[in-house]
């Protein structure tokens, strides 16, 4: 079975074609600058030179047409015809509390994605355009949506509710939804395999750390709490996002900087986080290098990030009857031994004991980096969201 995985951003489109018989990647690619001057598709097949198309692509339908053309190209393609593709899985940002699991695309599903554009104004419209482009260009193929919010919908009300007027919750569905759900789901399933435990018995805190970061408290295999909220702005200090903040900051900025609520929201999403504090970069590698050279603002930004992660770990441990492992994933979690060390040092009294020798220099490997005999395991576990989307798609279309 061959599954095409699609991940549409506001001006980009990532794809992978996977052979689900052995879960191998047949090809993958990226379309950049959709609707912007300089549109480009880069198509990659292992063992071949990259195939690049530089041509104007005014929308996601144009981009998808180029993707399909690349897949069946006599010179650069990997399938004889699109009939070889059994299904298409789409990553979608926000399904609210209506789409609570991966599902086959229907008109009602598309209406739900449209309904929650208010909470995902950049991603949901692009996700919907990708779905509709596939429906139009490859008629009759089953399309499946895998929601970034779906895995988190097992949270109890005491963790997803905000303490606002209940009428506002009922009117607008204002509540915590959580994101990075596909990554958190993959890690939960993979860690159950690694620890040789039934998923229903798995208790982990998964730290998905990158430019966008979130933690998930996974209790008995299900999300019990997570750090992101109604949008991905809540929670940790991130690359450009502020994370948790006194809501009064928004009204203060509107009044004192003479900006609109939308502009304040953009400020907190795009100009805050470690970028805003450091005044230098949203890339953690740049900040580590600058801190090592004595840049105090870069050091402060990194300290704020690691301290916020540490606080969330402590909060989630308080909600667990027992904890099997802390898991580090995402670009930072998998690759930065410095960030892992700074987050986890100081938690020894909670049974979290990092082995510096195991940690130092370790990148993107499935490995336990806790001290031998430590009460709680500490795993690095590379995430694979595309594989999770492909697995869900295969399961749904097989039915």
TrEMBL record:
It comes from Fenollaria massiliensis. Pfam families: Acetate_kinase. GO terms for cellular component: cytoplasm. This is Acetate kinase. Mg(2+) binds at residues 7, 385. It catalyses: acetate + ATP = acetyl phosphate + ADP. The record marks 180, 241 as: Transition state stabilizer. One of its GO terms (molecular function) is ATP binding. The keyword Cytoplasm applies. It is an enzyme of class 2 (transferase).
């Amino acid at each position: 079975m061959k599954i095409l995985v699609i991940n549409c951003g506001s001006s980009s489109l990532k794809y992978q074609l996977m052979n689900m018989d052995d879960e191998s990647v047949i090809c993958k690619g990226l379309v950049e600058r959709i609707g912007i001057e300089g549109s480009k598709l880069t198509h990659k097949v292992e063992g071949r030179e990259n195939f690049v198309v530089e041509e104007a692509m005014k929308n996601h339908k144009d981009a998808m047409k180029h993707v399909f053309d690349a897949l069946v190209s006599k010179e650069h393609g990997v399938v004889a015809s699109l009939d070889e593709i059994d299904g298409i899985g789409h990553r979608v940002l926000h399904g609210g509390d209506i789409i609570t699991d991966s599902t086959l695309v229907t008109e009602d599903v598309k209406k739900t994605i449209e309904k929650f554009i208010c909470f995902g104004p950049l991603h949901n419209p692009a996700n919907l355009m990708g779905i509709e482009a596939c429906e139009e260009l490859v008629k009759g193929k089953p399309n499946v949506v895998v929601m970034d919010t779906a895995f988190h919908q097992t949270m109890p009300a005491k963790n997803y509710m905000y303490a606002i007027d209940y009428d506002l919750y009922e009117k607008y569905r204002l509540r915590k939804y959580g994101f990075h759900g596909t990554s958190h789901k993959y890690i939960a399933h993979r860690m159950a395999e690694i620890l040789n435990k039934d998923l229903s018995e798995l208790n982990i805190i998964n730290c998905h750390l990158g430019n966008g970061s979130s933690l998930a408290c996974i209790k008995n295999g299900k999300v019990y709490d997570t750090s992101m909220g109604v949008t991905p702005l809540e929670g940790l200090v991130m690359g450009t996002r502020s994370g948790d903040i006194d809501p009064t900051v928004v009204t203060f900025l509107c009044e004192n900087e003479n900006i609109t609520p939308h502009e304040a929201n953009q400020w907190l999403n795009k100009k805050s986080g470690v970028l805003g504090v450091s005044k230098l970069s949203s890339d953690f590698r740049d900040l580590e290098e600058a801190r090592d050279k004595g840049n105090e603002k870069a050091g402060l930004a990194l300290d704020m990030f690691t301290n916020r992660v540490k606080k969330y770990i402590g909060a989630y441990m308080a909600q667990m009857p027992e904890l099997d492992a802390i898991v580090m994933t995402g670009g930072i979690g998998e690759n930065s031994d410095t960030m892992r060390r700074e987050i986890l040092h100081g938690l020894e009294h909670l049974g979290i004991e990092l082995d510096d020798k195991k940690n130092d220099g370790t990148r993107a490997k499935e490995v336990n980096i806790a001290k031998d005999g430590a009460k709680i395991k500490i795993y690095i576990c590379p995430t694979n969201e595309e594989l999770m989307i492909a697995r869900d798609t295969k399961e749904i279309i097989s039915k």
